[in-house]
Amino acid sequence: MYEEVHKNIFLIRVPLPNNPLKATNSYFIRGDSHDLLIDTGFMGVPECREALDTAMEELKSDPARRDVLLTHMHADHAGLAGVYCGEDRHIYMNITDIGYMNMYFSGDVDEAMLRRYRKEGVPEELNQAVNARFRKGKEKLKLDPRYNGLTHGSVVECGDYSLRLISVPGHCPGNSMFYISNEKIMFTGDHILFDISPNITCFPFIRDSLGNYINSLARSYRYDVKTAFPGHRESGDYSKRISELLHHHRSRLDEVLRIIHEMPGSSAYEIASYMQWRIHARNWETFPIMQKYFALGECLAHIDYLTNRSQIFCRSEDGKRKYYPA
């Protein structure tokens, strides 16, 4: 279940059953005074606990001296942070994501998202199904006093390694990478994935998630990276993958713009249904509920990008948003 990928750095593949991501890549760093676990897996999924329990036991990691470092707030990365952090140790995460999680638990995020999705033409049965999933998910992701907020440039030490936080908003408002400069190692989390493209969705209270992501990708070029450790799947050529992801989103933007030119007055829900998606489903109607939700969120992120740059505009018609070429 684990392998040493660099001196005293171990990759643990935490399985995600019935999830197209297949597994979360968790990384364990063995230190002198304490150990560090980077990302965890879902709370409430027995396979995640079994994988991490086995790895921690075989690696002889004492939970009392273990810190947890999170690349971002998503439940497949942060869900088990409280379980695997020592009682008197620390859970480190970008302070922006900590703030956003507080809004999420207050209900402000859910309410704002539901209001928007209704305006974007999403059927009410889909809205309610997704909200039910999120309410259930809240029960599995909790903040606790061990959370410590980090900012861009913050450094977390463990053994021979100094991990510097690189703020890369986009995939999450406080999405982060961690850089070990003397080893040219980058823990990329979900900012840079190598055989799938990270989901970039719209976030309530965030004006331009995709614009943030594209800017973060462009800034990521400045780091000299020999080895990238991603949050899912396999690794690859860091700089080449940045170029590929930028090209992917340029192509996606062109696709959304073409659809709006060909079918002006379409809702976001309709535009998403016309887009091409790499998923095992016969058509848009047979998409799994959460995959349809993720696709819609990605479509909206691209719509926001185009709207913010005056390439398209939105008109309210019968309480629903319809999109037209500028």
Helix content: 25-40%
Query: How are helices and strands ordered from N to C?
Result: EEEEHEHHEHHHEEEEEHEHHHEE
Number of strands: 14
| Spatial gap, N to C terminus | 52 Å
CATH superfamily: Ribonuclease Z/Hydroxyacylglutathione hydrolase-like
Indicate the CATH topology.
Metallo-beta-lactamase, Chain A
* Number of separate domains: 1
DSSP helix count? 10
Any guess at the CATH architecture? 4-Layer Sandwich
Biggest sheet record: 7 strands, mixed
- Could you report the average pLDDT, rounded to the nearest whole number? 95
Question: Gyration radius, to the nearest Å?
Answer: 20 Å
Question: Would you spell out the secondary-structure blueprint of this structure?
Answer:
Layout (H helix, E strand, L loop, with lengths): L1 E5 L2 E7 L7 E7 L5 E4 L7 H13 L7 E4 L5 H4 L2 H4 L6 E4 H12 L1 H12 L4 H15 L8 E4 L4 E4 L2 E7 L8 E5 L4 E5 L19 H12 L6 E4 L7 H25 L5 H7 L14 H20 L3 E6 L2 E6 L1
Characteristics of this structure?
five-stranded mixed beta sheet, single chain, Metallo-beta-lactamase, Chain A, seven-stranded mixed beta sheet, 14 strands, 326 residues, alpha/beta
